[in-house]
Amino acid sequence: MLFEAIALSDAEWQAITLSLKIAGSAVGWILLPGIAVAWLLARHEFRGKALLDGLLHLPLVLPPVVVGYLLLLSLGRNGWLGQWLYQGFGFSLPFTWQGAAVAGGVMAFPLLVRAVRLSLEAVDPKLEAAAGTLGANRWRVLFTITLPLAIPGLLTGTVLAFARALSEFGATITFASNIPGETRTLPLALYTLIQTPGKEAAAARLCVLSIVIAMISLMASEWLARRARKRLEERDR
Amino acid sequence: MNDVSRYHGYRASDDRDDSNALDCRVQKRLGDFDLDISLTVPASGVTALFGQSGSGKTSLLRLIAGLDRPDGGYVRLGERTLTDVEQKTHVPIHKRQLGVVFQEARLFPHYRVRGNLTYGMPPAARSRFDDLVTLLGIGHLLERLPGTLSGGEARRVAIGRALLTQPRMLLMDEPLTGLDGERKQELLRYLVRLTREIDIPVVYVSHDAAEIVAVADHLALVEQGRLVAHGPLDELMMRLDLTDRLGGFDATTRLSAKVVDHDDRYSLTRVVLDDGQTLRIPAVDQPPGTPIRLSVGVRDVALAHAMPEGTSYRNGLDTTIEAIEPSPQEPSANEVRLLIGRQRLRARLTRQACDEMQLEVGKSVVALIRSVAFDSRF
Which listed residue, of A193, A205, B25, B45, carries a Cα 20 to 30 Å from B284's Cα? Predict the structure, then answer.
């Protein structure tokens, strides 16, 4: 009896797996660009740096609905980018789970960049210079010195971004809508239940589920980061 | 410790000829500080860039290494132009083939010692790995992480790491800074042995006269961004006008000698100078025939017209006075330069003694030196 009470319904499973898939894809597509932009901001001076920095932080401060609407304008079938995607590849993002991943990724991007940038800036440039004197070009320095030393921050940033994408609501519902099995992630499913009279219990279950998933990802990130840091500073005095 | 001869096969670069001489003329403005130096560094031996903190010696090293760009001038290593402002040439650091040892060891914390050592090692240098590790005494540290090393150990690893890249020149920026007395002496001994084994030129930045006397063959004296004096260290140490800069109160003389034999009963070693005169010094652990370097303080040399009888002085060298000048700082003293064969020895005497003994240039005198005054640790 108890098991049946706790066991997840199909709709709940669907929302969870869909959320994980969408959040995972979101982090997947922003990871490399995020690291690249963070590296650019941490290690280089160029014209327009402040502007780029500001643009990157926009999703953090704009209402998510605005971001979703802007995505719809640019990536919709009639948008300048969406038109090109549709005509060139027969590919359309709005109302698809890929679209939800794009929305989640855009919203998570500034968090990822911030965390990675901070950890890159904490890497001592003297070590990078030393690697240079040992014959390493800038790419080898990046991949053997800078990035490995920034791994704790990279992990933190990745988990933060994942959590942000997981909890994404406003941009997703605006851009990708609320389609069961396609774009109805945990927050959207929860929202739907809240709107439906008599579904308070089901809503509470999703609420608890969200908390559990968030806790697991936070603990995983903490554990990974601590392990990475320990490896770096093993028995350091 | 003593089978140094084993490592005589160690060559840092096989295709080397005399083309590793460094020739540079650099100008650089750093805020209020203005550096303008022309310098040539011979293709072999240790050249010390010597000067006080803020004199510009480290800035010069960074310009040579390519870590900074000069405002004007050039840096050439043999035939190769590393930097030339007029030609707009600037070879990036990683293509310069210069080994750099920084003041802090700058080991990579996420690599073990072995990984640090092999980071820049080309396959051709693999055969030298074991010899160099033995020479630096870091064999037992290979699997450790840098965070667990002592200051001296970390620096030895940093030196090994730089040498294993097969550099054409080794640049060292105050490698002994921040070590306590004992560790400093230990690392200095490693450095002296190492610099005798490698056949690439070494540029060694330091502000410590004793350190320079121990390791350097040539000296470039830097003050306020300018080169003040430049040449073989033995010659510069004989320049009475440089006494203040080169050791001052504790100025010393370096002598080259060869081990003759050992007196085990008294723990003394007899060494011979190139003119055939012998000295007794505290025992050195080297076989007969080994060339060694001695240093003796200018305040540890006394003069007499003849070797006195019943004295504790173990050494009396026949010398000729080459120069006498008033001490730059000490009003009571004269600096005296003596000739022993082709080598020179300095003594600091009271002016009173000089007058009473009627010392003059060209006169023959006996230089009395206590055995215990010799330092042969290097």
Answer: B45
Q: In chain A, which among 35-64 make CB contacts under 8 A with chain B?
A: none
Check CB contact of B104 with chain A, cutoff 8 Å: yes
Fold that domain A8-232 belongs to in CATH: MetI-like fold (1.10.3720)
A133/B65 touch (CB, cutoff 8 Å), yes or no: yes
Q: Helix or strand or coil: residue B70?
A: coil
Instruction: Give the tens place of pLDDT for each residue, B319-341.
Output: 999 999 888 878 898 889 999 98
CB-based contact A133 B147, cutoff 8 Å: no
B221 has which bridge partners? B50, B229
Cβ–Cβ below 8 Å for B110 and A148: yes
Instruction: State how far the alpha carbon of A42 is from the alpha carbons of A34, A189, B64, B109, B333, in Å.
Output: 12, 39, 27, 21, 60
CATH 2.40.50.100 residue window(s) in chain B: 252-373
Using pLDDT thresholds of 50, 70 and 90, give the confidence band for residue B32.
confident
What the block records as the tokens of A39 is 């590296």
Helices (H) and strands (E) in chain A, counts: 13, 0
Write out pLDDT tens, residues A182-212: 889 889 989 999 998 888 888 898 899 889 9
Cα gap A140→A43, rounded to integer Å: 15
Which CATH architecture fits B4-237? Answer: 3-Layer(aba) Sandwich (3.40)
The answer to whether residue A236 neighbours chain B at the CB level (below 8 Å) is yes
- A132, amino acid identity: G
pTM: predicted TM-score of the whole model, two decimal places = 0.79
